[in-house]
Design brief:
Structural class: alpha+beta
Distance between the termini: 20 Å
Largest sheet: 3 strands, mixed
Strand content: 5-15%
Number of strands: 3
Strand order of the largest sheet: 1-3-2
CATH topology: Zincin-like
Shape: globular
CATH class: Alpha Beta
CATH architecture: 2-Layer Sandwich
Length: 138
């Protein structure tokens, strides 16, 4: 899918505004950034043929010491080109960004991949229904 970088970034900002407030209020010391593509370092944990859409780097909030003063900020990265590659239209792009952002936020809260596979499917189903019912608005 073709979309200008600024428009993509604007969608990420809009999705962030629609993350449930109870998550937003508990997120501390985490930056959210958009990069074009993952680098070799990012791809180190991805299996062959995997397409990395997002990445959480840092200390999960549930880890001992996560609230210590002086801890480096954690970071959630969304990979623009990979997300665009998986999306056929604007609504699908918005849904993918929403699911990926929530997935990485869940890592921050200590969820592992096993739990997140089920959560991702449920969220995507919910968002698909919402987009169908609401004509694509959050």
């Amino acid at each position: 899918m073709e979309i200008e970088d600024e428009k993509f970034d604007s969608i990420v900002d809009d999705v962030w505004e629609h993350i449930p407030i109870h998550f937003q209020e508990k997120i501390e010391n985490v930056g959210i950034v958009v990069e074009s593509n993952p680098n070799k370092y990012h791809l180190g944990g991805v299996g062959r043929g995997g397409l990395l859409l997002g990445l959480f780097e840092g200390i999960p909030k549930t880890e001992p010491g996560a609230t210590y003063f002086g801890v480096q900020p954690s970071k959630i990265t969304l990979f623009r080109e990979n997300i665009k590659q998986t999306s056929r239209d604007l609504n699908e792009l918005k849904i993918t960004i929403h699911v990926v952002l929530m997935h990485e936020i869940a890592h921050y809260f200590g969820y592992n991949e096993e739990h997140l596979c089920v959560m991702d499917r449920q969220l995507k189903k919910k968002l698909l229904k919402k987009y169908h019912d609401d004509s694509g608005d959050f």
